[in-house]
Amino acid sequence: MVSSSESPRKSPGIHYPPPLIFVIGFGLGGLINRWLPISLGIGESKIVGVVAIAIAVVGVSLTGISIIIFLKNRTPVYPNSPARKLVVTGPYRFTRNPMYTGLTLLYLGGTLMVNSLWPLVMLPAVLFSIYRLVIVREEKHLHDTFGNAYGDYTSKVRRWI
């Protein structure tokens, strides 16, 4: 962990919870499905249900573990506050965005559960929005706060998986 005691204390400037973007995308997909229902064509088998739940559970677990690691390191989870430490342990060894990766898995599991094409169609817009509205700001903040330590981290760990 790298502390930011000598670094700027400016926040990334994100004034809404990023999971809201996932909720909005899924909700819009659900609304479109009410007007123009198109299923994924996977049926309602137990196997699909188990796979959907498994994907969602992995997503929730990854997000939860990532949040716990932030809390243990006393750095804010909500990106409207300045980062206090550069967290590079746990799932952060494999992806710079395990919370968003986990939320994406939860979204995919939910899409399978509702067996609707529209949330899946909305997912690229959700991920693009997360990237442009959240990740770009977070990465700039982390670079400004942690400098070379963050640069070294980004050279070793991918943004996604």
Structural features, described:
It is a single chain. It is built from five helices and two strands; from the N terminus they run βααβααα. By secondary structure, it is mainly α. It has a domain of 110 residues: Up-down Bundle (Four Helix Bundle (Hemerythrin (Met), subunit A)), CATH 1.20.120.1630. It has a two-stranded antiparallel ribbon. Helix 1 runs antiparallel to helix 4 and helix 3 packs antiparallel against helix 4. The model has no long low-confidence stretch (mean pLDDT 93).
What string, H for helix and E for strand, traces the elements in order?
Answer: EHHEHHH
CATH fold label of the domain at 52-161: Four Helix Bundle (Hemerythrin (Met), subunit A)
User: Count of helices?
Assistant: 5
**Main beta-sheet annotation:** 2 strands, antiparallel
User: Helicity range of the residues?
Assistant: 55-70%
Total strand segments: 2
Strand order of the largest sheet: 1-2
Bulk shape: elongated
CATH class of the domain at 52-161: Mainly Alpha
